[in-house]
Amino acid sequence: MSGHCKPYLEKILGICRCVLYGGNAGKSLVRWISISMLISALLFVFIREAKAERTIFDREKRIIVLDPGHGGHDKGSRGSSGINESTVTLNLARMIQAELENRYKVILTRTDDYWIDVTGRTNMANHLKADLFISLHVGGSFLHQVGGMTLFYFKPAGTEKTEKPIQNETAPSQWENIQKQYSESGKFLALLVKHCLLEQGKNLESEIQGAPVKVLEGADMPAILIELGYLTNPAEEKALCEGDVRWILAKGIARGIDDFFKKALSDSYINLHE
Ligand SMILES: [Zn+2]
What we know:
Layout: H1 6-21, H2 28-59, E1 63-68, H3 85-100, E2 105-108, H4 118-127, E3 132-139, E4 149-154, H5 183-200, E5 206-211, H6 214-217, E6 223-230, H7 234-240, H8 243-263
Helix pairs in contact: 1-2, 3-8, 5-8
């Protein structure tokens, strides 16, 4: 019970002491009225408290942590126009936040151009008891023709070979492999986001891949990493620099998140295929 109920309880206990230990033992009518008042007061306090708790619960929103990849000295991949991955991911994260914030509490792991290590990113999500963690990246390759979108969910090393490079940061994680238990829900989230992105954009090539992604392994909630195309691919760089394309991506990811919460408790996901 919260502190604001203490004054009521003290008054009630005072009445109680008066009734039980007062000197006018013979006045039974007064005692009966006092006991009735005591019961009424107790009921008032408990009903008031229950209503207050329900109001707080109703106001709660699900918490989503968006992680704009890289930042600070780590610019990530770089396009021929000079644009950096860290700039694109922060901009996209803000757009997704704008799409979601009327119905969720959305927190960004970084809100400007500064560095934060992989452990710090997932620790933030764990500390906030987030419902979802989504790390945003755009790819880079020495081969300009390499492109497409990949949605990664966590799969421990050794269970499957991965073809595409993923983050290779080697910072030790105190929560190592905690994400293993969320592999299926992460895959489910990736499927839904992919479907919603395809609905939003007509020519988005995308695939879903399980991999031991460092930035996901410490997250204690469903989590995915989305690599939204390649800055080193001239056509994709051009598209990623367009505001309209970024809004399409932001809306698609936001709708995928909505679908995840709508369908997570049902078994509808069994009809989805990669
Ligand atoms: Zn990256």
